[in-house]
Amino acid sequence: QVQLVESGGRVVQTGGSLRLRCQASGRIYSSSVMGWFRQVPGKDREFVAAIRWGVGNKYYADSVKGRFTISRDSGSNTVDLAMNNLKTEDSGTYYCARERHGLSYQASEYDEWGQGTQVTVSS
Predict the structure, then answer these.
(1) What region, left, alpha or beta, does residue 26 occupy, with left being phi > 0 and alpha being psi -120 to 50 degrees?
(2) In terms of Cα–Cα distance, which of 37, 19, 40, 22 is closest to 91?
(3) CA 63 to chain centre
(4) 99/9 Cα distance (integer angstroms)
(5) What's the confidence (pLDDT) of residue 102?
(6) Phi, psi values for residue 106, rounded to 5°
(7) Cα radius of gyration rounded to whole Å, the chain
(8) pLDDT tens digits along 35-74
(9) Which residues, including other chains, have CB under 8 Å from residue 122's CB and lie 6 or more apart?
């Protein structure tokens, strides 16, 4: 069993930066993919970024490419999401998730989730 806890969400102004952290307890297998998703009321959970735990390959949604950076630290068992040049459209609840069997952009494929952390980008 792996448990995930997100932190770092807060209110920021447009153009600002924020770093979110996902702390994992338990083993993350090298074949796993760790992903970040976000959700706003009334909409489906949206893929943001993912990283293959073992090899470190990174993947991003087009909407955040060039502005967000995902990274992992195997020593501390953490996955960070560095967000720059934030826009109001980036607001939402951000979730960390684990996919055991391979890369996926679909939330339904992930089997472990954190509780979420709120990000609000104001103008």
Answers:
(1) left
(2) 40
(3) 14
(4) 23
(5) 85
(6) -105, 130
(7) 13
(8) 999 999 999 999 999 999 999 999 999 999 999 999 999 9
(9) 11, 12, 13, 14, 88
